[in-house]
Amino acid sequence: MLGIFFVLAASFVFFAVLAVGWVYDTDEVRELVGGHLSLHIDYVLDDIGDPPRIERAISITRKVPVDIRITGPEIDWASDPAFPKESELTFDRGAVLSDPANRLLGQLRDAEFAELDGHRFLRIRRGENAVIVSSPRIADEVQTRSLMPIIVGVGVSLVVLAYFAVRWLFRPISTIRRGAARIGQGRFDERIENVRKDQLGDLAEDINNMAADVRGMLDAKRQLLLGISHELRTPLSRMRLAVELLADQEGGATDADGMRADIVEMEKIIVTLLEAEHLNSRHAALHLEECDINVVIQQLLDDFFTRDKGRIRVSYSGMSRPVRIDEARVVLLLKNLLSNALRYSDESAGAIEVSVEVRSDSVVIRVQDRGPGIPEEQRDFIGEPFFRGDPSRTRHTGGSGLGLYLATLVARAHGGRLTLDREYVAGAAFVVTLPG
């Protein structure tokens, strides 16, 4: 903004000088000045007379702020002893009389101009005598005034005043921005305070009202989710109890096993959807803490993949430092990725590769399998809820298609991302990048 005001100041000065020069440089103005000067010179010369009369020259210098020197074969008189000698002055008709706009002044024959120490001298010859007029008086101190500093000073002053006025006018914007940023981070109890009673104050009040409305809607949404969870889990619990009783009856074990698997699958979907709903928001509450990612992965393998540890090969690289993550949710992310990799990989095709690289500001985890890969036409849908490349959705080949969706949300909640390596052709490879 400061740069814009300086550009405006420079433009103002430039065009102001240009306009003043254009006005005073017109032929009408210059011709008018030249005409008045010519007429004034005629009056002076007629008043002094020919031959020049010293008493008339003295009378003129008393009425007009000029000094006069009269020179000739028999006379050399000056109204001021400090008046320069004629020999000390260099006279020339110059550009003043040659300018077409000064044609009236140019009609004065033998009129010549000179300048010395800031004083201007006009010499008019009358026969053998010469009358030299000095303006201003020799005793007067010459003060040179330039229009440029005035224009520059006024222009810069006005622009500086305008700059600080605009800064004062828009000062609440920084307060509003900080408050809006805090509200955008999910701190809906924050309020923007100390804003003036004007349009910006109205804007701050509207943002405060919006924060309160959003807080109310999120609370209502949370209560709805909790209610749905409770209402669904209650009948599922009764169904499980009924299945257990059915299994005790003769011939009911086979049906009970199938129903039990369905109930487990339904509970898994409900839990996953609830977790996804918690994460599917920029305001997701993460429990961040410093962890050793190597220990986290090893514990994950020990807890959930004891039988398949021989099929998983883990490698570590990069820096040796703790990373700041939500350990429980990162474990959930990696568990889903490894489960998918094990499900779609043939044991004879080779081990599943997990590489972990800790960088200065992030951690990158790569999980690649030896399965059939993902067709090109399906890659853009990876991470969407309930999407699976296998349309059969059998229990053998996978669940409901929520695993990658949940993993994507976990990465996004951390401020990271989960991507598919499109260059890897020996199966499917997913890359998780988490800040921390």
Automatic annotation (TrEMBL):
Keyword Transmembrane helix listed: yes
CDD domains found in the cross-reference section: HAMP, HATPase, HisKA
Lineage: superkingdom: Bacteria
Residue stretches making up the HAMP domain: 167-219
Domain Histidine kinase: 227-436
GO molecular function, one term: phosphorelay sensor kinase activity
EC top class named in words: transferase
Catalytic activity: ATP + protein L-histidine = ADP + protein N-phospho-L-histidine
Topology class, membrane: Multi-pass membrane protein
PANTHER family with a match to the protein in the record: SENSOR PROTEIN CREC, SENSOR PROTEIN RSTB
Protein known as: histidine kinase
